[in-house]
Design brief:
This protein is an all-alpha fold. It has helices spanning 3-23, 29-36, 40-53, 60-68, 72-78, 85-94.
Length: 104
């Protein structure tokens, strides 16, 4: 597979993941972290790092808006719930398995 085709396929897969996460607003980031070791914020940070690496002037809030499909304030208002003590405990226990993100 040539590089251009590979990048097109990867980009389509990424768009599918972002669309899925935007549709699944019922899934809290802490649950994603606890189960998969990454969340929408991690994806936003990877997106920002990639944008920065290509020379694009972007900040974290802009990157999060791409991933969330709305501003962080809108997301928090409409979808974010307070984490339960159990979720917070599991977060601490699974922390060694969380995604490694440059600059974080």
């Amino acid at each position: 597979m040539d590089k251009t085709t590979k990048e097109k396929i990867e980009a389509a897969a990424f768009r599918g993941l972002v669309e899925h996460l935007q549709r699944r607003s019922d899934v809290q980031n802490i649950d994603l972290m606890n189960l998969a070791g990454f969340c929408r914020n991690c994806l936003s940070k990877w997106y920002l790092a990639a944008a920065t690496d290509t020379g694009l002037d972007m900040n974290y809030d802009q990157a999060r808006e791409v991933i969330y499909g709305m501003t962080m304030d809108e997301w928090k208002r409409d979808y974010q719930h307070e984490a339960t003590p159990e979720q917070k405990n599991q977060f601490k226990e699974t922390k060694p398995l969380h995604a490694v993100i440059s600059g974080h």
